[in-house]
Each structure stands twice: as structure tokens, then as C-alpha cells.
């Protein structure tokens, strides 16, 4: 499929980007150096499972260069696309660079916490992160709505996990870090939800099979490349009573908000998502 032929109009993506940036003014930004009192970080107040969860999510967040490269590859801003696609992708780029900055801040905050709390030594942690960071990351999609539907689920699932983990940890510094991360992920989810809704309104039933494919084959980032991922993921899920498929219900809400009345195909998609949640 020619991805350029299935893009939403540039005005739609620009409106979504403008809305996200308006809700994310520079004055609301936070930085790793001054947002927390790192001297009070204490991994001794965490259970073994909670420390493991911090290590796990640090690896996931730190793979940011791979995630960002996916958007650059599939929505390029160079001469490999025609002028209309370039203009669309350039508008989207305003979001992706802000999103990348915020996600990189998450990786740095979690890394800083590990160092300050005594979980890991900086040099050894760098090497550990590099071992995963050098592995390739890709999303096997050919319809643009899939990139946003995937990120919608992934960002919402991540937000919920950070909230759940925050509620059970006993270190106030880590709780504060997780609260910041969860708020950012909530805004990222809102952007993805906005874009998916726009695709639904513009392309209607043509989005059904692409979104269905995302759900049928969904994997959280690094699930297919990190050694021992599933065993580790199950362990950290137990720590905070978490199931990523909880995010599926939010996709259903996006579908319902985007259309005045479901078509038969959209109705089938919703039933599929709900059944997949039950099976999972």
C-alpha cells in the first residue's frame, strides 16, 4: 500500500499538532536536573519487584532513538516524498520532535533515579542500556493510521502502568518521577487518540482492517527483541496489578467519539477489540 495515498489532509494533522502543542506550553515543561531532590532517592524503600520494574521500564524508555527513527522512516521530511506528503510530514514532525524530547527526558529521569537510589552504577547502566538500544526497532505497518493506533494503545498502557506503580511504591522520589511520566504519557495518548479519530472521520471503514491488524498482532515495544522479555514483563505486571489490554477500551471510546453512528464494519471492529481484550 502507498502510505502517502492514505494520509489524512494536512489541515487535519496540523490541527492535531497545534492542539497538542497548545496543551503543552514550555512553561509546563520539567527537567531532570531540578524537578526532583535526587539526594532523597532510596531504593531501600522498594521491594525487589519494584526495583525490577524500574529497571525494566528504563530499558523500554531508553530505546527512544529506535522509536523516533520509525516515524522519520515512514513519515520522511526529505526528497523521497512528493510535496504534499512532505508538507503533511513536516507538520507531524512538530509533534514527533516534542514527543521525542519528552520521552528522552523520561529515559534520563529513570536512569538518574537508578543511579541516585543505588540500583545501578552509571557506567554499568550505560552498557546495559546500549546492549538493548543498539537492537533494531520497527513497526510492520503499511497504513498510516496503524502507527497512531499502535501508539494510542502503547502510550495509554504505559500511562496506566506508571500510575499503578506510583500507587504502590514507598519512595516519594520515585513516586514523583512516575507521576510526571504518567502525565506526559496521558498527553501523548490524547494526541494519538485525536489523530486516530481524524482518520476514522476522514477514511471511515477503510481504517477498520488496519486497526484490526494492530490489535490482532499487538506487542509492547521490545517484546520481540529483549531477551527474557515475557518472563520479566509478567513479573513487573504482578508488581502493580497491570494488564496492557486495559488500554483497548480507550480505543473503543475513541471510535465511538469519532463517529455519529457505527457502520457495520466499525461495529465488527469494536466487537473484535472487546473480544480480544477478553481473550487476552
From TrEMBL:
Source organism: Nocardia suismassiliense
Family: Belongs to the fatty acid desaturase type 2 family.
Cofactor requirements of the protein: Fe(2+)
SUPFAM superfamilies linked: Ferritin-like
Pfam families per the UniProt record, alphabetical: FA_desaturase_2 (PF03405)
Keywords: Fatty acid biosynthesis, Fatty acid metabolism, Iron, Lipid biosynthesis, Lipid metabolism, Metal-binding, Oxidoreductase
Keyword Oxidoreductase recorded: yes
EC number per UniProt: 1.14.19.2
GO molecular function: stearoyl-[ACP] desaturase activity
UniProt cross-references to InterPro entries, sorted A to Z: Fatty_acid_desaturase-2 (IPR005067), Ferritin-like_SF (IPR009078), RNR-like (IPR012348)
Name of the protein this chain belongs to: Acyl-ACP desaturase
